[in-house]
């Protein structure tokens, strides 16, 4: 595992964007796994800036997002569909047909999960998976549990996760109770994983995830088994390592 610590958010965002952009520049038809949340916003901004400078084209890339809320209209301001358009897709040349986000409004959610896994299989392995980290150690929406699920599945969101995400909604009652998420099996199959963590409020959980024994109670701890993990931390998040 390669842990890089940055003394400014700007440097961290630049480093994260560089890793993703060079992946797209060097791997023909790169398959990217993308994440949402507050953490990657600055990285996406740098990627858009690189695209606008003509440094990179996403025409031949494919993307798969980690997760999406269940029963939140795709045009809702807090859907991950809206998030991705706002922060990335509307500003780059990644063709719409090559962008994938699980459909949390599908009439048959189980079938949607199977369809999503098939689409990932068809695209081949994910070359680079971008990940944020939940305060309870979740990755994607794989919440702490007695057992973790390999492929895309429906998940009941932990109260802690709903509370953390309530900041984006009018009230906690508006935060969906379920989501669809890629499973840990799919995440761990990615050739390279880029985990990005910012803030003192995540110092405890990133320490547990990277340095304590591997446990399904901290899903991110499974990343310790990955042969090609890059971790980008700001100094606050790295405070307890
Ligand atoms: C969210 C997402 C995750 C994200 C995590 C941390 O709910 N499902 O993919 O990594 O929680 O979010 P943030 O970056 O806003 O702290």
UniProtKB/TrEMBL annotation:
GO molecular function, one term: identical protein binding
Protein family per UniProt: Belongs to the glucosamine/galactosamine-6-phosphate isomerase family. NagB subfamily.
HAMAP family associated with the record: GlcN6P_deamin
InterPro entries (alphabetical): Glc/Gal-6P_isomerase, Glucosamine6P_isomerase, Glucosamine6P_isomerase_CS, NagB/RpiA_transferase-like
Domain Glucosamine/galactosamine-6-phosphate isomerase: residue ranges: 19-226
Organism this protein belongs to: Cohnella phaseoli
Record's protein name: Glucosamine-6-phosphate deaminase
Domain of life: Bacteria
Keywords for this protein: Carbohydrate metabolism, Hydrolase
One of the GO biological process terms: glucosamine catabolic process
Catalytic site: 67, 136, 138, 143
The UniProt record lists the keyword Hydrolase: yes
Statement: the UniProt record of this protein carries the keyword Hydrolase: yes
Major enzyme class: hydrolase
GO cellular component, one term: cytoplasm
Pathway: Amino-sugar metabolism; N-acetylneuraminate degradation; D-fructose 6-phosphate from N-acetylneuraminate: step 5/5
Reactions that this protein is recorded to catalyse: alpha-D-glucosamine 6-phosphate + H2O = beta-D-fructose 6-phosphate + NH4(+)
EC numbers for this chain: 3.5.99.6
SUPFAM superfamilies in UniProt: NagB/RpiA/CoA transferase-like
Function: Catalyzes the reversible isomerization-deamination of glucosamine 6-phosphate (GlcN6P) to form fructose 6-phosphate (Fru6P) and ammonium ion.
